[in-house]
Amino acid sequence: MKNVVVLIGSGSIGQAIARRVGAGNHIVLGDLKIEAAEAAAKIFENAGFEVSTVAVDISSRSSILNLIEHARQFGAIKNLINAAGVSPSQASVEKILQVDLYGTAVLLEEFGKVIADGGSGVVISSQSGHRLGALTEEQNAKLATSPTEELLSIDFLKEITDTLKAYQYSKRCNVLRVMYEATIWGKRGATINSISPGIIITPLAADELKGPRGEGYRNMLKASPAGRAGTPDEVGDLAEFLMSSRGRFISGADFLIDGGTTASYWYGDLQYLKKTH
Ligand SMILES: NC(=O)c1ccc[n+]([C@@H]2O[C@H](COP(=O)([O-])OP(=O)(O)OC[C@H]3O[C@@H](n4cnc5c(N)ncnc54)[C@H](O)[C@@H]3O)[C@@H](O)[C@H]2O)c1
Fold first, then answer.
1. Protein fold of 2-275
2. Ligand 1 pocket test: which of 43, 124, 204 has the largest number of ligand atoms within 8 Å of its C-beta?
3. d(CA 264, CA 271)
4. pLDDT tens per residue, range 240-259
5. With 0-12 CB in 10 A as exposed, 13-18 as middle and 19+ as buried, what is 223?
6. Which of 75, 64, 78, 73 is nearest to 116 (CA)?
7. From ligand 1's centre to the CA of 72, what distance in Å?
8. N or C end of the chain: which has fewer CB within 10 A?
9. What is the pLDDT of residues 167-195, one digit of tens each?
10. What residues does each domain of the chain span?
């Protein structure tokens, strides 16, 4: 039996993380689109990793339980990487809340019951969650601690009508849920953290930068403190640290990795974005 690394969402960010923690372990590549998991599997196998693939929909608890059962055949689940999600331009308000908010919460709850002693997880949230103004203490507590099956009935979530807000609330909820779950994962000797990336170049983002809205994005990146977008490998490096032996004192925390874009959005040259974002 080996240690098992479970990656859900086999895109570039997830792959960069799994490559860094996967050597010598069994990697389970999960995705809603099995073709995406299989394409990733080919790359991993050709680079010497042991992998298997499984179709999974994180908005379904039974599908998550099926993924866990698949993973446990190979050994103890040591790492969870959640890089699955839908973006505001890809999906409806309901879908975003179901996948990004509820799905992530169920995933943390179910993996929190089986994660190995000494294990560690990361959830990919987004800088978008940091563009939402402060919520009240009561709202925070509802997002952090409501039973998973009651999450989608929270009053202020039911009022959301635009997809960007749905995405921002979902990503804020990921961060709060990670805090709550860290208290439970800790009892099993495991850590869980979230990472909130800015614009990271993936095939989709590269297309966006060249597309009709590309000029706006390019100007925003130019005016940001780093002056550029990030790469999946930079997110991978941060995740590797959090899941390594050097990261054992870090749990329930969120890490912005956005080249200073959020700082500039609130207090610098990017404040003009507040009108549209
Ligand atoms: N790329 C960026 O600039 C960026 C920035 C901030 C945050 N993020 C976040 O990073 C994560 C990964 O994004 P990416 O850019 O690699 O995108 P991606 O589209 O390449 O990867 C996301 C994967 O999630 C899968 N997926 C969608 N719904 C699912 C479901 N219900 N169950 C299981 N899998 C599902 C998709 O099939 C896809 O393969 C997302 O959560 C996204 O919100 C990305």
1. Rossmann fold (3.40.50)
2. 124
3. 7
4. 999 999 999 999 999 999 99
5. middle
6. 78
7. 24
8. N
9. 999 999 999 999 999 999 999 999 999 99
10. 2-275
